[in-house]
């Protein structure tokens, strides 16, 4: 079974809202382990065209974005501590789930990926939405609990201990890295 590590929404503008240092360190370890084990690393980031034509004003999460600053190229860059390397796939999305408004499913299926290892910010946003959609698309799922971050630690814990285990294996970066051979 072919596995891919998904690194989701670790852009400067997203991370600026969180104390992300520990999560970035864990993400770095996960990425290094994946590369050592020849596991593809796929980055997913939220991005919009100039003028935000993808955003409807009724969208509670994104509707206010056109009025806010922050859709600059620098703000949309993936954090340099975990930045893509040449050959890594970077998928652009337009909604919360990594699959919504993106070609992620096509990219994964073209590479015969059947198992997704999920990481990212925020646990209650991109990780939850992507996990639910990926489960409905019949992917095998693993979530790296310490390579995900949420603004509310209690919500993060509830998702990791009660919600995610219904559809995914939830492990630490160390546990996963030991199993990948990385």
UniProtKB/TrEMBL annotation:
It comes from the Bacteria. InterPro entries: Isochorismatase-like_dom, Isochorismatase-like_hydrls, Isochorismatase-like_sf. PANTHER family: ISOCHORISMATASE HYDROLASE, PEROXYUREIDOACRYLATE/UREIDOACRYLATE AMIDOHYDROLASE-RELATED. Keywords: Hydrolase. The keyword Cell division does not apply. GO terms for molecular function: hydrolase activity. This is Cysteine hydrolase. Residues 3-173 form the Isochorismatase-like domain. It comes from Kineosporia corallincola. The keyword Ion transport does not apply.
